[in-house]
Write a structure and sequence with these properties.
- By secondary structure, this protein is an alpha+beta fold.
- The chain folds into two domains: 41 residues, Arc Repressor Mutant, subunit A, CATH 1.10.10; 81 residues, Lrp/AsnC effector binding domain/regulation of amino acid metabolism (RAM) domain (Alpha-Beta Plaits), CATH 3.30.70.
- It is built from five helices and four strands, in the order H-H-H-E-H-E-E-H-E.
- It has a four-stranded antiparallel sheet.
- A hairpin with a 6-residue loop joins strand 2 and strand 3.
- The two termini are 21 Å apart.
Amino acid sequence: MVMRVDLDAIDMKILRELQNDGRMTNVELAERVGISAPPCLRRVRKLEEAGIIRGYRALLNAPALGYDLVAFCMVGLQHQSDANLKAFAKQTANWPLVREAWMVSGESDFLLQCVAENLAAFQDFVIEELTATENVDTVRTMLTIRQVKDVSLIEM
């Protein structure tokens, strides 16, 4: 379970700045939030240790790398026991095409975001991997047309 951490105005500024540019130096970050570098670094480390900052990464342009297809799969399991749900969730880590996996409520048990080079690669995954997985009952797929919003930032 995630515990909420009390954040002051400086912590919030640090988080906003790092969301916009995670590559800036500590000195630049300190200048932007209005404190000196040593306490800024201590605050960033504290935010990292508390799990507020989960990590840093480069955001890649998938189509420029040849990954032109984004699709979603709604997966229903035959049995929804805790063990079955955990087993399927663990299995998603073995599928490189699955970029995000969510356990959901409603008609399906899981929602998978998949990124593939093309339709044939996605179809192979669905037929040979996903539907062949033990305890999978239904798979409904949705091919995307175009992304209309991409905001991975947390509004604070």
